[in-house]
TrEMBL record:
It comes from the Bacteria. Residues 15-481 form the Major facilitator superfamily (MFS) profile domain. GO terms for biological process: response to antibiotic. One of its GO terms (molecular function) is transmembrane transporter activity. This is MFS transporter. Its main location: membrane. GO terms for cellular component: plasma membrane. It is found in: Cell membrane.
């Protein structure tokens, strides 16, 4: 993306309102459904083994198609792609709200992910081409980031309110007015500079191979729960994923206009950032799911109370990102913020493994959430900035999309993997302790104890994965601090700081 394209658009600040509104909708949708999931599961009779597909279907479609969405916005034009994404997202939300069974709900979630993958890259690249002056651009990204960062908190609260006082279906229907207003506003105010287009050919083989490879990978983790890790289906899917993704990398090294230029991946620092962020997403996405179920099913919290329970983590995440990471990243090398940040979040997870049937929120859950939020915010800030720092302008969009892709795919894998681990541990615990029921223990108590054992086992794994993420950051990422002059693609540190917030909210 060139740094300067044309004279600034006079309607750019009005356009920002509708771009930020669209981003708010996407971020809100990611958290609002988490809170509503237990109610939707009960209403549509979704099995415990399949429930994570309500989350995974969205994350996989979104993550698998982000690079494709970025390329489409270059070819079709960003405004057109943005509006199509909004309309499609509204239609998919209507289908989700009207879902009659689990298949319809999961299909709607996947469709939301498809249109979200068109919407998200188009929104960010519109900001980049409409705000070309450095200070204005930093301010625009700041506003965008603040609104989108708050979207996670808004989603948690609205999810609880709708589920408790209306119906879980309203967590889908609420997207429709957002999308309609944003689409009408975009058509009226966004005028994309013609020079911003990048009319290269679409890498169709790359799109097909990357998407099929990622689907095989996540489906493999899901089948492991029902069939076992050594079952033919499970092994076959993992082998297919390796072959397809290997073929994708081979194709990308040969085509003229690759979907994913390998020069972006091969950079040591960016590669380290993508790996550490992907692993961190594996840990965090699964954790949100288990903690929601623990608070609602085991502790008996209402959906509204569950939403409020997550707010301290959102607050410390924003504080860690804007007050710690943003202030130190121009003085301290990124790895010395990323490594300790991920380790702090891992420590919060270790604290969470102490939960039982009667754990107090104030002493058992809250300290863990505060540590996790502060650690992840501190680590994500410099990581997001470094991912695009010094990258060539022509690769800026791809580098940004890769950050989102690594997180969304990590989230999809994490939800499937940790759900599999938790379900296996729950079943084993229940089987091993059936003698307690014979001795007089209520079966319901054993069921809850088994569930909590499953959750804590998965959280131990998540803590280990976060520790690995910290080690990768410390070993692979060797760039100095980011206090030098900004590159054309990377934007100012302030941009990166604010942009770090919405991604984590996903």
């Amino acid at each position: 993306m060139p740094e300067t394209l044309t004279a600034p658009d006079p309607k750019r600040w009005k356009a920002l309102v509708f771009i930020a509104l669209a981003q708010l909708m996407v971020v809100l949708d990611a958290t609002i459904v988490n809170i509503a999931l237990p109610s939707a599961q009960a209403d549509l009779h979704i099995s415990d083994g399949n429930r994570q597909w309500v989350i995974t279907a969205y994350a996989l479609a979104f993550g698998g198609l982000l690079l494709f969405g970025g390329r489409i916005s270059d070819l079709w034009g960003r405004r057109r792609t943005f509006v199509i994404g909004l309309i499609g997202f509204a239609v998919a939300s209507a289908l989700g709200g009207a879902a009659l069974n689990s298949t319809m709900l999961m299909g709607a979630r996947a469709l939301q992910g498809v249109f979200g993958a068109l919407l998200a890259p188009a929104a960010l690249s519109l900001l980049a081409v409409m705000f070309t002056e450095a200070q204005e651009r930093a301010k625009a990204f700041g506003i965008f980031g603040a609104i989108a960062g708050g979207g996670g908190a808004v989603g948690l609260i609205l999810g609880g309110v709708f589920t408790e006082y209306l119906d879980w279906r309203w967590t889908f229907f609420v997207n429709i007015p957002f999308a309609v207003v944003a689409a009408i506003g975009a058509i009226a105010t966004i005028h994309e500079p013609a020079e911003a287009r990048n009319p290269s050919k679409l890498d169709v083989p790359g799109v097909v191979l990357a998407t099929l490879g990622l689907v095989s990978l996540v489906y493999g983790f899901t089948r492991a729960e029902s069939d076992g890790w050594t079952a033919g289906w499970t092994i076959g899917l993992f082998v297919a994923a390796v072959v397809l993704l290997g073929a994708f990398l081979f194709v990308e090294s040969r085509v003229k206009a690759p979907l994913m230029p390998l020069r972006v991946l091969m950079d040591r620092n960016r590669g380290g950032v993508y790996m550490s962020l992907g692993l961190a997403a594996i840990a965090m996405f699964g954790l949100f799911l288990f903690l929601t179920y623990y608070l609602q099913i085991v502790r008996g919290y209402s959906p509204v109370t569950t939403g409020l329970a997550f707010l301290p983590m959102i607050a410390t995440m924003i504080a860690g990102s804007t007050q710690v990471g943003a202030r130190l990243m121009t003085r301290v090398p990124a790895r010395w913020l990323m490594g300790p940040g991920f380790l702090l979040a891992a420590a919060g997870m270790v604290l969470l493994t102490r939960i039982d049937l009667n754990t107090s929120y104030a002493t058992g859950v809250l300290p863990s959430l505060l540590l996790m939020g502060l650690g992840m915010g501190t680590a994500f800030m410099p990581a997001m900035s470094l991912a695009t720092h010094g990258v060539q302008p022509r690769d800026a969009g791809v580098a940004s999309a890769m950050v989102n892709t690594s997180q969304q795919v990590g989230g999809a894998v994490g939800t499937a993997l940790l759900n599999t681990i938790a379900a296996s541990a729950t079943t084993s615990f229940f089987t091993d302790h059936m003698k307690d029921v014979m001795a007089g223990k209520p079966k319901k108590v054993l069921m809850f104890e088994s569930m909590v054992h499953g959750y804590t086992t998965a959280v131990w794994w998540a803590a280990g994965i976060l520790t690995l993420s910290a080690l990768i950051a410390l070993v692979l990422v060797n760039a100095g601090h980011q206090g030098g002059p900004k590159s054309a693609a990377s934007g100012t540190p302030g941009e990166a700081a604010e942009d770090a917030i919405p991604v984590m909210a996903h």
